[in-house]
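Moderator note: this is an archived Q&A kept for reference. The question asked for a predicted structure of one protein chain; the sequence and the answer are reproduced below.
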Amino acid sequence: MSFTIFKQNMLSFMRNQEGIDSSDDFAKKLTTEYDSCIKRGFQQPGMFGLLIPVKRGNTDLMETLLKLACIKASNVKQGNHTFIDDIGKAIQGGYWVGAEISTTVPPLMVTPPAFMNISTTSAFVSSPGTWTPIGPTPPVNDSNIFLDILIASITVHLTTIGGTYIMQSLYPGVPVVTNIGFLPFIGYTVLPWKPIKL
């Protein structure tokens, strides 16, 4: 379970406060774990039943935006905060901007009148999706609860990501014609998590 691994790794990190030197460490860790989690997911099934994962996300921009989110959160002395939504903005406006999908395996789905894809030339995210705000939340001391809320929000966001595959496809004719095919997509799948009781 990809999100389970993400949560376990983040919990271990967050519960070791003595080992965290600054909020920049949190931004770096969250970016690394999110990237790994997403790369364990897939956009859709490809040929031969293989799954098509993200090839590259914009981790540099995500980490920078997460650092800003941490600074903003640290300036909230008391009361509700928007930290999870600010993390969401870093994910949406950072990681998914310019993200590329793997071109190793062509998608199984075709755009009619093509009947088969033979290779993928490029695959890119053109819409970083929509982050549904949860609004201001009260501070929580339990990392487990914080991560459950964050994962639920990430899961909803992944359903809204969109882009396009550009492929070489086979079209009917005599002889069969090879030409460019365009296949728009929406959504990205990461396996769900199981609640962790520690």
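Archived answer notes: The first strand starts at residue 54 and ends at 56.
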